TrEMBL record:
<dbReference type="Pfam" id="PF13563">
    <property type="entry name" value="2_5_RNA_ligase2"/>
</dbReference>
<dbReference type="InterPro" id="IPR009097">
    <property type="entry name" value="Cyclic_Pdiesterase"/>
</dbReference>
<protein>
    <recommendedName>
        <fullName>2'-5' RNA ligase superfamily protein</fullName>
    </recommendedName>
</protein>
Length: 170
């Protein structure tokens, strides 16, 4: 991963997992647990953890409703279940986005952030959520998108619990 090494940046994503994804347990890039992506960005590892931690503090867990399905990605090849607009979820996204930008992180797809944020849960083969499901997003995780430089794997490196703001580190 030449770009990360050259600039000291590393790929991360902040997510709210719907399925369990313990800190320190890696998974393949095509085998994500169900989740809502809050922000995808590049940043130095310690700065990423500090930015997300500082953005979260103590937060109330968003309680969201699953909406209709949509097709995302190149030529609409990625099936997703949209999450209905929710002010608490939007606030989490905005807080992380502002903190990462202020700390010099490079945000991926800025057109899909802020007012363009469309929270969703990607359908994973037979695993999916259903329209009308109510989900409580009780924590936010920081996921390393290329642990040890290997982009075939994903690794949750920290998790912050709602209400307590306590971090679980791997």
């Amino acid at each position: 991963m030449a770009g990360a090494a050259a600039g000291g940046l590393h790929p991360f994503v902040a997510v709210a997992f719907v399925e369990p994804a313990p800190v320190g347990e890696r998974f393949g890039k095509r085998h994500w647990p169900l989740h809502v992506t809050l922000l995808r960005f590049d940043m130095a590892p310690e700065a990423a953890r500090e930015a997300v931690s500082g953005a979260l503090g103590v937060f109330e867990p968003p309680s969201v409703t699953v909406g209709h399905d949509a097709d995302f990605g190149y030529r609409g090849r990625v099936r997703v279940s949209l999450v209905e607009p929710d002010t608490a979820l939007q606030s989490l996204h905005d807080r992380i986005r502002v903190a990462v930008a202020a700390a010099g992180g490079r945000i991926h797809s800025p057109q899909h952030t802020g007012g363009g944020f469309r929270p969703h849960i990607t359908v994973q083969e037979s695993r999916r959520v259903a329209r009308g499901d109510r989900l409580v997003l009780g924590s936010v995780s920081l996921v390393d998108m290329a642990p040890a430089g290997d982009s075939d794997w994903r690794l949750p490196v920290a998790e912050w619990a709602a209400r307590s703001g306590q971090e679980t580190a791997g």
